[in-house]
Amino acid sequence: MTQTDPRPWWRRFNLTAGWLAAITAVTLVIAGPGHRVGWLGFQTAVQLSLVAAALSTLGFVVAALALLGGRVWTPHRFGISSLAALLLCGAVLVQLGIWALRATSVPPIHDISTDTEEPPPFVAIAPLRATAPNPVEYGGADVATAQRRAYPDIATVRVATSAAVAIDSAARYAEQQGWTVVAKDAALGRLEATATTFWYGYQDDIVVRARETNNGTFIDVRSKSRVGRSDLGTNAERIRALLAAIAADAT
Q: How far is CA 65 from the centre of its chain?
């Protein structure tokens, strides 16, 4: 057998790796943008993502074997399809691994509030969540207990500015982040907005409440996902960043 006529098994592995990578990419495109534009439901998108995870795992293994075999048994052969598959499937596995680690490091809750005794209610956003799997109401004592254990730093913040100024700061931050501002009333100290993820189009709703007193303005923020049991810590991160932005503007 000559080097211009590679072994059939190597050729099959190289081709299979490329096909697995291509199918993985197509599956992710169907799952993500498909859900974002409303073609797929949440559960279907999740199931397709799991299929993509399995395909990427298989693709990574086949690509690694093809590259290793190509260099050892046919040294002058370098499979472009296998290399591309290794990179694409590896990237998918890394991202899925990050999500899995985050899921195991936080409690399975999706409603985070700085005030768990009197969470800021959704008003203007409530009708938009009418068909969402996660109800607009707060989950109660169990959710509050889980939140305090996982995110003890999430709490009401006091700033030395007016409620109107604080709400204006929150609105500016929302626009910078690309959120959709649903309602804003600086005089009443209230802002409601929706954040949408890039790939899957998952939506999380945010409400900011600013209550002005003689001792300063107290800021409460609540962020709640419309779908999914766990938010992977996203809502807590969002609240921290928003409060930091409001506090920075107040100094």
A: 33
Burial of 153 (0-12, 13-18, 19+ CB in 10 A): exposed
Could you tell me the CA-to-CA distances from 6 to 13, 96, 147 in Å, in that order? Answer: 12, 35, 58
Strand partners, 184: 191
How far is it, in rounded angstroms, from Cα 221 to Cα 214? 20
CB 35 within 8 A of CB 42: yes
Q: 201-235 in b/e burial notation, b at 16+ Cβ within 10 A?
A: ebbbbbbbbbbeeeebbbbbbbbbbbbbebbbbbb
Mean per-residue pLDDT for 34-52? Answer: 91
Contact 214, 200 (CB under 8 A): no
- Check if the beta carbon of residue 86 is closer than 8 Å to that of residue 219: no
| Tokens, residue 161 | 């500015």
**Backbone dihedral angles phi then psi of residue 38, each to the nearest 5 degrees:** 95, 10
The pLDDT tens digits for 67-91 are: 887 655 555 555 788 889 999 999 9
